[in-house]
Write a structure and sequence with these properties.
The protein is built from 13 helices and 27 strands. It is about 20% helix and about 25% strand. The protein is elongated. The chain has helices at about 40-50, 60-65, 75-85, 125-140, 170-190, 205-215, 215-220, 245-250, 265-270, 290-310, 355-365, 560-565, 690-695; strands at about 30-35, 55-60, 90-95, 140-145, 145-150, 155, 195-200, 225-230, 275-280, 315-320, 335-340, 345-350, 415-420, 440, 445, 460-470, 470-480, 500-505, 515-525, 530-535, 540-550, 550-560, 570-580, 585-590, 605-615, 680-685, 705-710. The protein has four domains: about 30-370, Glycosidases (TIM Barrel, Alpha-Beta Barrel), CATH 3.20.20; about 375-410, no CATH class; about 415-615, Immunoglobulin-like; about 615-710, no CATH class.
């Protein structure tokens, strides 16, 4: 529910893994707190994309009924309908007193600057009446167009042991004033609905506060599912016994005889062990998207709480806190996503943290925990279940009509790599043509601290071209950036304006770098063009050349074909353009993921070799097949398309062919080999015959009044 400042500090230091057996009773599930209703319904979609089966929403009394008799449900109805559309079940917590319902005359409801009053005790009978209205509305079913949606699980208040959520943190009063009448209202309006509670926070004298509730016979009789909150940590994340209770201590392993009792001990003392338990809030903060250790620890914590549930058959559901960071809260960072945040809510684009992948991976490994499979397998029901435009077996996600999951992961982004005849690594784009260009603009920008105000196209944009030049692959990246900022050492060049490139030599993916993965960085500093190898064996890099002219920075380098592709037609690669405007690294543009926030080759994109020639400056004798273009008895070298002088006039070179057209300066390569290669290279000036060779000359295209011939 509403965030709790100052009591949720958790140590998080190292990754760990522990196998866990599935619980053998109950219906195991996982959920997430989404703090709706508000205008950000796309967060329901993000919850569904994580694979959870439940969301917990805030059924705040003051929102439902801001004035006596003005019961309004339109906002929450939209949330419930969206959850229905996405196959999610809703756990709705009903809490917080509107000022008109507060006991006694302690609140001036006409004061527009009144403080939040939801923690105050409601007058007798008011809360029970509200719960009855809410449950009748949702348990009876609401219309969602062509569907009907229902809610059957209702929480009775939230963290009543904390003074900011219930007056004086008086759990004994909560049990009689809130839980007993609230449970009665639920079961009266809907006998088959479930009452959940008490949703206490495991802080302070939590065991005594829980005993106030569970040892109250009437309160215990009203509870169908016992709910609890714990943000305590694990030994695997560096938690020590003197740091306080661990997560396991909270559940059923009392730390010392003189420390507070575990949840299970209080349940045993009060005769409540017949109840299944849902952990409805738990999580770890990761507010700094640039801190890979924080992000990794949050992902590990996510896995560990689910494994803790799996080891205990009496715990059957765990709700992560929460779907999205609230950057305006003093406990920002618990979200599995970070989105741009405004007064209207959270908007796309959003950044998913590694904890999202950890949750999704766990649920994929435990398919019975996730969303309910449709009655008819998705791949045989004639419906486009994953909304990708493909139905049943026409969808690549379907292995056959009995496959219950039509979803297929989105294909990786692709850059096509056509052939080109010649390469000079000089920071000029001439040999790269205009085909197969990937353009990244402001909409692709990802900020260090999550989406903020996006740059303009002049502030930051980039184009990427990749070509195959025989047995080499050339990269040309042109960046428009109004401010160039990099005064870092080679090892830290990623913190300034720079280019990072990574590739997976074996193409086997993975969640972290392995020995076959390589990452390099390139930058222009006061020392000129520099590069650094961050990961893996140092590659045979040709170049790099990094040059800046006006607001444009150009990066060019080449790598051996086999180093990237390994004999395959596709290579798994990620490329990232860092942005720093004299304020440190602010964010980046990227082709594919897997570099910026965490190292994950599974997120890399794809370079794909294509069998077509892209030659913006054809030379006499160039052709598309790398065979003899001049009729001089030999095949050409793989990258040079050797030139013949045999077809256009009197022989001026002494190779027994007709004479050349005047001024051509056509080169003969037949004197030493049909395929002239070798270290002796001859540069021949072609500038006297622009039309004859279709070459570019002049200051606008330096280098192209020359032709490099290998001799």
């Amino acid at each position: 529910m509403r965030p709790l400042p100052g009591c949720l500090l958790i140590l998080a230091l190292t990754l760990a893994a522990a196998p866990a057996a599935l619980a053998d009773i109950g219906d195991n599930a996982a959920g997430i707190n989404v703090h709706l209703p508000h205008t950000s319904l796309h967060l329901v979609d993000k919850a569904a994309d994580l694979g959870v089966s439940w969301i917990r929403v805030d059924g705040n009394w003051e929102v439902f009924e801001p004035r006596r008799g003005a019961f309004q449900t339109e906002i929450m109805d939209r949330v419930v309908c969206r959850a229905q559309e996405r196959g999610l079940k809703v756990y709705m917590t009903l809490a917080y007193t509107p000022c008109w319902a507060v006991e006694g005359n302690r609140v001036n409801c006409s004061d527009p600057n009144r403080p939040y009053t939801g923690y105050l005790r409601p007058a007798a009978g008011e809360y029970e009446a509200f719960v009855g209205r809410a449950v009748s509305h949702y348990a009876g079913g609401i219309s969602c167009g062509d569907q009907t949606a229902t809610v059957t699980h209702f929480g009775i208040w939230n963290e009543a042991n904390l003074t900011q959520f219930y007056e004086d943190g008086d759990t004994a009063d909560y049990a009689t004033r809130i839980l007993v009448p609230g449970a009665r209202a639920v079961h009266t309006a809907c006998p088959d609905c479930k009452v959940l509670g008490p949703d206490l926070a495991n802080v302070g004298e939590a065991d005594a506060k829980l005993e106030d509730v569970l040892c109250n016979a009437q309160a215990l009789a009203g509870i169908d599912i016992l709910t609890h909150h714990s943000y305590n940590s694990f030994e695997e994340l560096g938690h020590f016994i003197w740091d306080g209770d661990s997560y396991d201590n909270v559940l059923d392993e009392q730390r010392f005889p003189w420390t507070r009792r575990s949840l299970r001990q209080v349940m045993e003392a009060c005769g409540a062990t017949h109840l299944e338990v849902w952990m409805t809030e738990t999580g770890l903060r990761a507010p700094d998207l640039g801190n890979s250790e924080q992000l990794a620890d949050q992902a590990t914590y996510t896995r560990l709480v689910l494994e803790a549930q799996a080891r205990r058959p009496w715990i059957t559901n765990t709700f992560l806190y929460e779907i999205v960071d609230d950057v305006r809260s003093d406990i920002d960072g618990y979200g599995l996503y970070r989105c741009a945040q405004t007064d209207e809510g959270h908007r796309d684009p959003c950044t998913e943290k590694p904890a999202g992948a950890a949750l999704r991976d766990f649920l994929n490994a435990h398919p019975t925990w996730g969303q309910d499979a449709p009655a008819q397998p998705a791949c045989g029901n004639g419906v486009d279940d994953d909304e990708d435009g493909l139905i049943d077996e026409a969808d690549p996600g379907c292995d056959g009509p009995d496959d219950s999951d039509e979803y297929n992961p989105p294909p990786p982004p692709v850059i096509e790599v056509p052939r080109a005849p010649r390469l000079v690594v000089d920071g000029e784009p001439d040999e790269y043509g205009v085909d197969a260009v990937l353009v990244l603009g402001p909409g692709d920008f990802e900020a260090m601290e999550g989406p903020t105000e996006l740059p303009t196209i002049q502030d930051l944009s980039a184009s990427i071209r990749v070509r195959r030049f025989g047995d080499r692959v050339g990269f040309f990246v042109e960046v428009s950036d109004d401010i160039h900022d990099n005064d870092k050492s080679p090892a830290d060049l990623w913190q300034g304006d720079s280019l990072q490139v990574a590739w997976d030599r074996n193409g086997d993916g993975g969640q972290g770098y392995g020995p076959d993965d390589v990452e390099i960085g390139l930058a222009l500093t006061a020392d000129g063009a520099v590069w650094h190898s961050f990961q893996g064996a140092e590659p045979a890099l040709e170049g790099p050349v990094v040059v800046r002219s006006g607001p444009t920075t150009r990066y060019e380098f080449a790598l051996p074909l086999d180093a990237l592709f390994g004999g395959r037609q596709e290579a798994r690669v990620a490329l990232l353009v860092n942005e720093a405007d004299n304020q440190g690294r602010e964010g980046w543009l990227a082709f594919a993921g897997g570099i910026g926030r965490f190292k994950r080759p599974a997120d890399f994109g794809e370079l794909r070799l294509v069998d077509r020639l892209d030659d913006p400056n054809p030379m006499p004798g160039d052709d598309d097949t790398d065979v003899d273009a001049g009729g001089d008895t030999g095949t050409d070298a793989p990258t040079e398309d050797a030139i013949s002088s045999d077809a256009d006039g009197a022989d001026t070179e002494g190779d027994a062919g007709p004479a050349d057209v005047a001024g051509d300066d056509v080169l003969d390569v037949s004197a030493d080999s049909p395929a002239d290669t070798g270290p002796d290279e001859e540069i021949v000036d072609l500038s006297g015959d622009i039309e004859g060779c279709n070459c570019r000359v002049g200051a606008e295209a330096p280098g192209w009044n020359r032709f490099l011939l290998r001799r």
